[in-house]
Write a structure and sequence with these properties.
The structure is a homodimer of 109-residue chains. Chain A is built from 5 helices and 3 strands. The first copy, chain A, has 109 residues and is an alpha+beta fold. Chain A has a single domain, classed as Orthogonal Bundle (Arc Repressor Mutant, subunit A), CATH 1.10.10.10. A 3-stranded antiparallel sheet of chain A has the order 1-3-2. In chain A, strand 2 and strand 3 form a beta hairpin. In chain A, helix 2 crosses helix 5 and helix 3 crosses helix 4. The structure holds a DNA duplex (30 and 30 nucleotides).
Chain lengths: 109, 109
DNA sequence: CTCACTACTCAGTGTTACTATCTAGTGGTA
DNA sequence: TACCACTAGATAGTAACACTGAGTAGTGAG
């Protein structure tokens, strides 16, 4: 992936994962796969797991261990009230940034 | 500024500054002021100058020292061909990200 | 002659995504 | 058996970036 995208994902990737969890509970491997489907083809698994550890430690998600038929047990993450609040804040910040950049782009054309 | 916005600006702030320079040459203090006008009220001066040093070292801008009537000489930055290319790449990356997030936001509503 | 404004610089810090590697369970196949 | 592919998660070390907080320096107003 481009270095540019790597830097741009900082802060944003967390919001993306929170948004995915906002659609329903999910586990790490699944989230990684969904990100790939969404076009984020080069996001490393390790990156996602590290991010999930962070949002768990900040209390934004509830965690449940669920056995899997195909491999080790899954850690299923569910967005809780605090997580929803964080997601709202993310959309608010993102909205501001996207709005500013849309203006800038329009000015440059 | 929120920690969230701080992280989200990583990578994006550089694009914003390149976009501002795309509108015409400018010097550091001026760029800082424009950012404040644009709503980025809490971006530290030191942050902008450090960023300008980086894009200068990467050869994205041409630099000229111009005397000022009001204070020390100004370092005026002008976007060159390489800089324009970097700006295009930025808009491309940003476009991808903004598109993905728009989809995600629509799904969550 | 102090203050405010202009203009730039720099060392140190925290956060984040990436790389690379490791552990482990299940099922297929040579 | 031995090996591989897929599933599932963890972690140490690194690079990049924005922030904090401080500093240097020139000009003009009070």
């Amino acid at each position: 992936m481009g270095k540019q995208m790597t830097e741009m994902l900082k802060g944003t990737l967390e919001g993306i994962v929170l948004a995915l969890l906002g659609l329903g509970p999910a586990y790490g491997y699944e989230i990684t796969a969904r990100l790939r489907d969404q076009g984020f083809a080069d996001i490393a698994e390790g990156t996602v797991y590290a991010l999930l550890v962070r949002i768990e430690q900040r209390g934004l998600v509830d965690v449940e261990k669920v056995p899997s038929e195909k491999g080790p047990p899954r850690k299923v993450f569910t967005l809780n009230a605090q997580g929803r609040e964080a997601l709202d804040e993310f959309w608010s910040s993102w909205g501001f940034l996207a709005d500013r950049l849309a203006h800038l782009k329009a000015e440059g054309e």
